[in-house]
Amino acid sequence: MKQHDMYHNSFLQSYREPFGAAPRGSNVSLTIDVHNHHQVQKVIVHYIYDKSDEEQTKELDLYSEKHYYNSFEATIKMPDEPQLVWYYFEIVLEEYTFFYGRLSIEESGEGVLYEHIPPSWQITVYDPEYQTPRWWKNATMYQIFPDRFHVEGDPELEKAPKSSLMHTHWENDPYYIRDENGGVVRWDFFGGNIQGIIHKLDYIKSLGVTVIYLNPIFEAESNHRYDTGDYHKIDLLLGTKEDFEQLIAEAKDRGIEIMLDGVFSHTGSNSIYFNQRNEYDSLGAYQSKSSPYYDWYMFHEWPDEYEAWWGVGTLPTLNKEVESYQQFLVHNEDSVIKTWQQSGMNHWRLDVADELTDDLIRQIYQQLKTNDESSVLLGEVWEDASNKSAYGKRREYFLGGVLDSVMNYPLRDLMLDFIKGEVDAYFLHRRLLTLREHYPREYFYALMNMLSSHDVERVKTMLDAFLPDDLLDEERRNIIQQQVKALSLWLYTFPGIPSLYYGDEAGVTGGKDPDNRKPFPWGREEKELVHWYTKIGQWRSNHAALRTGSFKPHALHEDVYAYERWVKNGVDEFGKKANNEHMLYLINRNYQEEIEVTLSIRKGRWQHMLDHRMFRTKKGKLTITLAPCESMLLRHIH
Predict the structure, then answer these.
(1) Residue 94 falls within a domain, yes or no?
(2) Catalytic annotation present for 380
(3) Is residue 549 part of a domain?
(4) Cα 98 vs. chain centroid, distance in angstroms?
(5) 567 lies in a domain?
(6) Of the listed 33, 380, 384, 396, which one is catalytic?
(7) Fewer CB in 10 Å around end: N or C, the chain?
(8) Is 90 exceeded by the pLDDT of residue 156?
(9) Domain range spanning residue 305?
(10) Mean pLDDT confidence for 462-489
């Protein structure tokens, strides 16, 4: 049997209906074609429930005989309990048995013929009762590393940790002072504070931003503050609880929500809970086994040998299954979550979400939603969150009632790999459709999409590294500028929430930590880029199709990727009222050659959003020539 003698494509509704994730208890129809020169005895679909590893089979019915292919179909019922369901096909001939499955666990779509049990396609079975907040699906995010954004007033140096190093010039580059083992012995601070953020709220709003995500702001020893000292206190160098409440209130007056970084998998060793250096007026776990916090930590040999995050001794790991810790974090009247809810803090990003149990995340989720249904819980997940496994357990992030969103690093990786030339548009198309297939629609439209963050190199630095060394400086700068505009326009028009890392819009560069955490260059911004981000922020704000409209991608050439976004009949993908419109995004990643592409699309005229050029369809097809490194957003006129 040859590969083309058999065909199933999970992306096409003629082979899998409905496309993508399926509500619990619903039916999914599966179809496979087999060339009619084979004497087929029977075709069987094997489907496995992920939670029980229980395998079931069903024989497909022959329902069509045409075009040299016989089509076999079966309808299978999804389980009532949300989980993953895996499926593949078995084709029994007179003398041989073949199997048909997907190419790899990372890629859906067309299948491959096997002589053994193959990789299976995934169906994500979710609970449709859980929906992500409407405001969030329409949001535009701005991420701030608080110490490096803006100082309002004089930095209160005396409030910095004793071992800190304070920069006297805002233009300095950040750096670490390490010991012979690589441990940081002095943290450098620039003095950015909460009042500084408040002072720049109008600037942030001008970018079209509707939610600010803050890296940790609680009392800590380091400048990144992922080593929490006290969950109930704002770091004094940043300001006070009253300052934070003022930020929440003034941001809300401008239509901007605030999201906090929740670091709940570990604390600092220098904290009220562990108290390794005896700097807190508390009985810490390091000091006594009688400490109320002792069972929060996992000691191999008390007090100096304990579980620590990635082996970093200053970050002792918390035992998330201890009830007293769960009460402290979520349920007590003065719990961390409830305390900050009283200050108006409703939205959290969970640091290293896979190191928290789903049960604990679910408890946080329920407390947030009980107080305010529009609260958002976002998780730091670096992989496909639908089938993520950690510590021997399949995670249930998107099955309903655990998370509202995750950081979409898979999208970032694919975007940069495409620009770099490591993958072509066809590969990109298949991988992004795989994500779309795996994620329930509520979550696909709620993902945090970004190019840069505090954990990765800034986008301009990445793009510079991709280019060959022999380019002239001016040519290099021009290419990078065009690439930044192309990628950011992609980010702002793709389903999900675009996240702008502070300073990217000003042209800030930076490699790995700490270089990616430079101070914002106030007064030295790249005005052209600031104007560009302001423009695309306005486009996203003004056009519902770019936020919650339907989505259809196209791989038009190995170097050209495109997708349509539209609203019709006055409602968006979620049945909400929206203006009818139809948009088209295209990108030519080739920085040396112009490329002409043609696609079948809605008849009429299409107008370039930036320079107002007009393109017309002919016989239902639109032909466009993209200059080297060009991207464009077109809007259908009539």
Answers:
(1) yes
(2) yes
(3) yes
(4) 38
(5) yes
(6) 380
(7) C
(8) no
(9) 266-310
(10) 97
